[in-house]
Write a structure and sequence with these properties.
The chain is mostly helical. It contains seven helices and no strands. The longest helix is centred in the middle third of the chain and has 27 residues.
């Protein structure tokens, strides 16, 4: 039987215990995550708007899917980081809220455009693209909702109503887009 020296056992126990402790995040990390989200939202919006109303290609449709999956991943990371951050100060909360408000129109534009492009996705010679778009919309809606909830949970009380309003507006945009692809 192998004997582990007591000192080594204690060291291994401490290392194992500390590796299970979640890493604390900062407001600066949340702000960096939001900057990444802005980049990904812009990329998604651009790829949707670049898709033609007729005669689109499978490659262009897959570029939209790729942008959506990247954005979902970015939102999930931002949610994890936000959850691991202390409550926002008044100034930090206002800055973060303003950052989110700034890209809200781009999200709404992307959702409006994807609804308008639904017939073009249906017309592609390879089936299943509208189902893929629906899956992406559902994933984006879920990830956006989780991120919104994490931000709201960390926001100062006087900013919660405004943050809820943004969440509702974006959620309504997702509801409309999801309904368009659910038929």
């Amino acid at each position: 039987m192998v004997q582990i020296p007591t000192g080594l056992f204690l060291l291994l126990s401490v290392v194992t215990a500390t590796s299970a402790i979640p890493t604390k995040r900062t407001v600066a990390q949340v702000e960096a995550d939001i900057a990444d989200i802005v980049t990904q939202v812009d990329a998604l919006d651009s790829s949707i708007n670049a898709f033609p109303a007729t005669g689109g290609s499978l490659l262009a449709a897959l570029a939209i899917h790729s942008s959506a999956t990247t954005l979902i991943s970015t939102l999930q990371t931002a949610t994890t980081d936000t959850t691991a951050t202390d409550a926002f100060s008044e100034d930090d909360g206002a800055t973060i809220l303003a950052s989110v408000e700034a890209f809200e129109p781009t999200i709404l534009d992307a959702l409006t455009a994807i609804v308008a492009k639904e017939p073009a996705f249906e017309a592609l010679p390879i089936g299943g693209i509208p189902a893929l778009v629906l899956q992406d919309l559902q994933g984006l809606n879920s990830a956006t909702g989780a991120f919104s909830d994490a931000l709201i949970a960390k926001s100062p009380a006087d900013l919660v109503d405004q943050a809820d309003e943004i969440k509702t507006t974006i959620g309504n945009g997702f509801d409309t887009a999801i309904a368009a692809y659910s038929n």
